[in-house]
Write a structure and sequence with these properties.
Blueprint (H helix, E strand, L loop, with lengths): L5 E5 L20 E2 L2 E2 H11 L4 E6 L4 H6 L4 H10 L2 H12 L2 E6 L6 H7 L1 H4 L4 E4 L3 E4 L4 H12 L2 E7 L9 E9 L2 E9 L10 E9 L2 H8 L10 H8 L5 E5 L3 E4 L3 H14 L4 H10 L3
Helix pairs in contact: 3-4, 5-8, 5-9, 8-9, 10-11
Length: 288
């Protein structure tokens, strides 16, 4: 089984849950401590062996492109100031990965965003990572999926057990257990009500997919909201190929929500060697 080399990052969303902060700045560039959230996810992909990153962008996302590019003026300034540590850090960001950009011209859903990357992917199995799902884990989240993909050679979804009251915000699978942490997907439903959810296993923002999904997404018509949903495409893919799911080992943060963003900021700060202890003391001193 060939190793997955390419990853798609759908980052064209408007970030409406963070307005007005995202009126002129991409949600993916909001900082978690001292790095934009998208950088954490790109680093996870690289740590999992990804070689090429395809960003599916939209209007107003230029800051993401600039972040992963060389900043000549900034580097000259840092060099003149003799700040070699900061200079090294910003240069490493520009050199960390090959990034390709394609445009999603209209907000037509996650399935459509993935379809926009078709020409850049070709006929390879590929990964999809959502930029506002952060995962802290011993083994990178995407690597966990890659291990299953290498074994089984088919599409693999990352899933997490979700409380009943939150299940309607996710794609949800029905399944047959294979072994601890691994199951065979038998069906998928996009954002079911708690009463209609087939299980408590929700799909989170990590996928490894086969290129057949492009043919399916190409032929799909937009749903009631005018969007092509990836979950609906995967349900059709299931008619042709097996799909497996890997239960996440680690802690996930929904940094696309305000509470999740704040939680991630606090916990990532506490883990940071140069900041954690001082920040912990500060939190303990609060009397709010």
């Amino acid at each position: 089984m060939a190793k997955v080399r390419k990853a798609v990052f759908p980052v064209a969303g408007l970030g409406t849950r963070f307005l007005p902060a995202t009126k002129a700045s991409p949600k993916e560039m909001l900082p978690i401590v001292d790095k934009p959230m998208i950088q954490y996810v790109v680093e996870e992909a690289l740590d999992s062996g990804i070689q090429d990153v395809i960003m599916v962008t939209g209007r107003g996302k230029r800051a993401i492109e600039d972040h992963f590019d060389i900043a000549v003026e900034l580097e000259m300034l840092l060099k003149e100031k003799g700040d070699s540590e900061a200079l090294k850090e910003v240069r490493e960001i520009a050199e960390m990965v090959s990034v390709f950009y394609v445009r999603q011209k209209e907000p037509l859903g996650l399935g459509h965003a993935v379809l926009c990357a078709r020409d850049a992917i070709g006929e390879e199995d590929f990964a999809v990572l959502l930029g506002d799902d952060l995962v802290h884990s011993d083994t990178p989240c995407l690597q966990q999926l890659m291990n299953v993909h290498q074994e089984l050679g088919c599409s693999v979804l990352c899933v997490e057990r979700m409380p009943k009251e939150e299940i309607s915000g996710y794609g949800v699978i029905s399944y047959e257990p294979v072994r601890e942490g691994i199951c065979k997907v038998t069906g998928l439903v996009e954002k079911p009500s708690p009463e209609e959810a087939p299980s408590d296993l929700a799909i989170i923002g990590r996928y490894i997919l086969t290129p057949m999904v492009f043919n399916i997404l190409q032929d799909m018509r937009p749903g009631a909201k005018g969007e092509i949903q990836l979950t609906d495409g995967l349900q059709k893919l299931l008619e042709h190929q097996e799909i497996y799911a890997c239960e996440l080992k680690g802690k996930r943060y929904d940094a696309g929500s305000k509470l999740g963003f704040l939680t991630a900021t606090v916990e990532y700060a506490l883990r940071k060697e140069t900041l954690g202890e001082e920040f912990r003391r500060y939190l303990k001193s609060l009397n709010i």
